[in-house]
Amino acid sequence: MNAVEQTEQGIRLRILLQPKASKDAIIGLHDEELKIAITAPPVDGAANAYLMKYLGKAFKVPKSAIQLEKGALNRHKQVFIPAPKAIPEVVRQLLENL
Predict the structure, then answer these.
(1) What CA–CA distance (Å, rounded) separates 35 from 48?
(2) Which of 2, 43, 48, 71 is spaced 20 to 30 Å from 34 by Cα?
(3) What φ, ψ does residue 52 adopt, rounded to 5°?
(4) pTM surpassing 0.85?
(5) Are 71 and 94 in contact (CB under 8 A)?
(6) CB of 17 within 8 A of CB of 77?
(7) Which of 12, 26, 19, 13 is nearest to 42 (CA)?
């Protein structure tokens, strides 16, 4: 699977998460994953909760609609974003290059 996969229902992302970064950003492709940096620390699920909130804002969907499919306790994650109303430029470019 690629880092970004578009389906009829939404977008699936394979993510390499960098917690405790200096700023929040979708950095780009790293091997076969989309690297995302967030400022939240990796303790007690704080990074996962923050990631869902960040992706919700970036894709303009409720954070409760985003599904963490794999990697709850890992930096390597897979998330599904149903019916995004916006697509960040980095992700749009990856989709166009498929």
Answers:
(1) 14
(2) 43
(3) -60, -40
(4) yes
(5) no
(6) yes
(7) 19
Tracing tokens 């923050």 back to the chain, one arrives at 50
Residue 37 structure tokens = 């940096």
Residue with tokens 């989309």: 34
What's the 3-state SS for the chain?
A: CCCEEECCCEEEEEEEEECCCCCCEEEEEECCEEEEECCCCCCCCHHHHHHHHHHHHHHCCCHHHCEEEECCCCCEEEEEEECCCCCCHHHHHHHHCC
